[in-house]
Amino acid sequence: MVSGVFGVTARAGELRERILALVAEYCGEAWAPAAFVPGQTPVPVSGKVFDSAEMRLLVDSALDFWLTTGRFAAQFEREFARWFGVRDCVLANSGSSANLLAVSALTSPKLGDRRLRPGDEVITTAAGFPTTLNPILQNGLVPVFVDVTVPTYNVDAAQFEAALSPRTRAVFLAHTLGNPFDLDAVTAFVRRHDLWLIEDCCDAVGSTYRGRKAGTFGDLATTSFYPAHHITMGEGGSVLTGTPLLRTLVESFRDWGRDCWCDPGKDNTCAKRFDWQLGDLPRGYDHKYTYSHIGYNLKMTDMQAAVGVAQLGKLDGFIQARRLNFDALRAGLRDLEEFFVLPEATPGSQPSWFGFPMAVRPEAPFSRNDATRYLEECKIATRLLFGGNLVRQPAYLDAPKRAIGSLPNTDFVMNQVFWIGVYPGIVPAAIDYMLDSLHRLVAKTVRAGV
Length: 450
Known about the structure:
By secondary structure, the protein is an alpha/beta fold. The protein has 2 domains: 71-311, Type I PLP-dependent aspartate aminotransferase-like (Major domain) (Aspartate Aminotransferase, domain 2); 312-449, Aspartate Aminotransferase, domain 1 (Alpha-Beta Complex), CATH 3.90.1150.10. It has 13 helices and 15 strands. The chain has an 8-stranded mixed β-sheet with strand order 1-9-8-5-4-2-3-14, sandwiched between helices. A 4-stranded antiparallel β-sheet has the order 10-12-15-13. Helix 4 runs parallel beside helix 5. The longest helix is centred in the C-terminal third of the chain and has 22 residues, at 428-449. The chain starts with 9 loop residues before the first helix and ends with a helix.
């Protein structure tokens, strides 16, 4: 029997197997792939890729009716940590929540003098997604923005020493669009100054640097399982760490701030549930209702995790497909470098690309808006590089911050860069159509300018 539920009848088990068999049959009928038709079939920048395996486990979990974190979540945490090569994985309800948990964990009094306190500074970039920045501000910390390099779109580590101050306590950076940042330079800097390092791997699951997975260099790393990402659970994320204390702190902030570390439905894992004396509580106060942090409830449901378990078995293939799609676009656009700045991997890295970033050169006969408008008319979806320059976004105009210089490359990202998809659902015929459309864009504008 597939289920982990105890006490069900043999008849119930038989019905479950019939239901799951029908689910697989339904998936094959309802989600059969359609042929790609250039100009008619949309080419998204991202999307979920799944088959009957995901649907079967999703329904299997639903039939358990264990609606919070459960057996599938435990299985995924164990297998994902093993795949990454780290000690612990803690699931959360989104990658954004994972980022919040990673930063919040470093504010815990249990870290002693190394804890982050309000007013402490965290070095980061402004060319990225808001939820790498938001947890810094939400915890009363001050972001210090350094510029990025083009065309890696990652942090310019040469600016770190200029960014350093007596209040600098951490570095929190994303591997942009799956391209690892310079981990040699970043890890040397944090070691030299005894700083925390958080790697945002939400776009970079499977990326490697000098043969080692991105996400295994810092004190903490985060991932996302939103449908756009390398594997999906619909919503979801995780925090990865090799440090047992940090795992405990992340779980505490995720689970209401409680001091207890029992799994849902479990009691007395510590074997001293009624023997603790913490804070000003009376000795013996129930450990399940003792809170050591001001936390949240950011747990994942077991149904989401069930989808992730199936997706994890496909992850290596997904990464390979992303790399092949990226390589095909890079090779096919080489003759257009007069008009576009094409992306480059960080030296020593092998990215697990999230997207294909392109910058329209300022001297090109068309603008970025011209390019994205044309591609969208061709049903090829485009995206900007997230917030462009977050310093200029309305949400952050009055936020506490420091910036090293005027961030000219970040403004270049804001004004010139967009990206197109490489996700595994993009078939070779769609790649050919994307290349043909970009060549037609250039030919059309060059002819118009003659």
